[in-house]
Amino acid sequence: VQLVESGGGLVQPGGSLKLSCVASERISGFYVMSWYRQRPGKQRELLGSISRFGNVNYQDSVKGRFTMSGDDTKMTIFLEMPSLTPEDTAVYYCRLNYGSGSESWGQGTQVTVSS
Length: 115
Prior knowledge:
4-stranded antiparallel beta sheet
């Protein structure tokens, strides 16, 4: 299963972006899709996860700031990011976990917050 992220770009501080991640195939069983980011010089970090049933879990770093949602019929998840700061500059990735230990990663989408 391939994942493709989109929606990244250059935005000024205080601006917003909405990222999307779409899977190339429909998963018939249970799955979880997650958002990660990797800031310059940092390790990749988990931001949050959403199950096919719409249950969302956020990491403390983005809880109350970012909003995850998904459309199971389209195998797509979203990450809404308002009030961005330069510290949010990173490559944002999505990950799909499904089946018996299977996973896929997207290629990432760059988000740059700068004036």
